Amino acid sequence: MAEHVYIEDIADHVGETVTIKGWLYNMRSSGKLHFLELRDGTGFMQGVMFKGDVDEELFDKTNYLRQETSIIVTGTVKEDERAPFIPFEMGISDIEVVAEPTQEYPVTHKEHGVAFLMENRHLWMRTPRQVAIMKVRHEIIKAIRGFFDDRKFQLVDAPIFTPAAVEGTTTLFETEYFSQKAYLTQSGQLYMEAGAMAFGKVYCFGPTFRAEKSKTRRHLTEFWMVEPEVAYMELDEDMDLAEAFVQHIVSHVLEHCKDELETLERDTAPLEKIAQPFPRISYDEAVEIIKENGGDIEYGADFGAPDETILGEHFDTPVMVHRYPADIKAFYMRKDPNDETKALCVDVIAPEGYGEIIGGGEREWDVEKLEKSIEEHNLPMEAFEWYLDVRRYGSVPHAGFGLGLERTVAWMCGLHHVRETIPFPRMMDKIIP
């Protein structure tokens, strides 16, 4: 029996007779030739069946194979620069049908509307474009973990059930938790602050949930965030860390995702321009840039998607906007001692109109100031007693940030909407499949 190999490794088997176990992605016939497009989860490649190389019954049966028939294909690998997908193809000598579709496959090789594709997301994922996006996502996750692991950050997993809000209370998903109410986490940050006091520098990486009633191309109700937190770190060092982190992700994708970016027809020139240091501007400076470029923003307001787009298009690299008005930031943000109307915070806004990908800053480490802030935000003090303990016992300056994975994937891939960046997106109107 021929050796079973994966398509991603096919270049190592030129001239050998091998077996691929996968599915029929597409097929066309031309007289005495069948051209089969094969996929096995690791890649796509073409197989060619010549009528004279196989028995007549097999050749005829192959002509009637349906899209997504699961098959085991045996043949000899050869190089061919003209072949689709990759510059290799297989000369097929045998096909074993494992299972035939019970009906016509719905996601055919024609144009489909987005609504239809989203209803069939579990099948749409099999196409080359979607496979490429998921592979880029996978590499970004590897880059994220590698960055923090190499810098000896401790991974600390944050809980998904929480007793209270981290951000605004209007974006919480509430659930019954035995005899009390609980909420799906908006962020692991508060727990990372406790972790930083135990390990010095930590990060969590997991799903977070926001019940924002938003249908923009940048929003999901369930998304993944990586959140580092470091003891004895202040805002400038926090910005240094965020800058190095983003640069690392971009460099990793450019190095490891060339084929996927080509499949996606992503123009990599804007990514190749990205280099440290990134521009750092204050909120006040950002407001002026927005107004000068036709934006309609009132001073003191948080940035909306149009404002972020203007800023992102104004710079060739990510731009870091720091010191927003304290009134529009979360209760835990430390105020600037030189101007208490401002928070010691930073947002990183991606170029090309992809919006905010990082939000972070210094945390208030004075227990009395934090208690006052919790009261001013009308939050239940009892739910934050454990959080206040972090300040009661050896409080230190500390800072961190959160990066949204899906927005970062959208930016790297050049996608219009974040719904394509996660295997099974959750939005206001989408919970199936």
From TrEMBL:
Kindly give the SUPFAM superfamilies that the UniProt entry links to this protein: Class II aaRS and biotin synthetases (SSF55681), Nucleic acid-binding proteins (SSF50249)
Q: Which residues form the Aminoacyl-transfer RNA synthetases class-II family profile domain?
A: 134-423
Q: What is its main location?
A: cytoplasm
Q: Which domain of life is it from?
A: Bacteria
GO terms for MF:
asparagine-tRNA ligase activity; ATP binding; nucleic acid binding
UniProt cross-references to InterPro entries, sorted A to Z: Aa-tRNA-synt_II (IPR004364), aa-tRNA-synth_II (IPR006195), aa-tRNA-synth_II/BPL/LPL (IPR045864), Asn-tRNA-ligase (IPR004522), Asp/Asn-tRNA-synth_IIb (IPR002312), NA-bd_OB-fold (IPR012340), NA-bd_OB_tRNA (IPR004365)
Q: Which GO terms describe its cellular component?
A: cytoplasm
Subcellular location per the Swiss-Prot or TrEMBL entry: Cytoplasm
Q: Which E.C. number(s) belong to this protein?
A: 6.1.1.22
One of this protein's GO BP terms? asparaginyl-tRNA aminoacylation
Q: How would you summarize the oligomeric state and partners of this protein?
A: Homodimer.
Q: Which family does it belong to?
A: Belongs to the class-II aminoacyl-tRNA synthetase family.
Q: Which HAMAP family match?
A: Asn_tRNA_synth
**What is the name of this protein?**
Asparagine--tRNA ligase
The organism is: Persicimonas caeni
Organism lineage: Bacteria, Deltaproteobacteria, Bradymonadales, Bradymonadaceae, Persicimonas
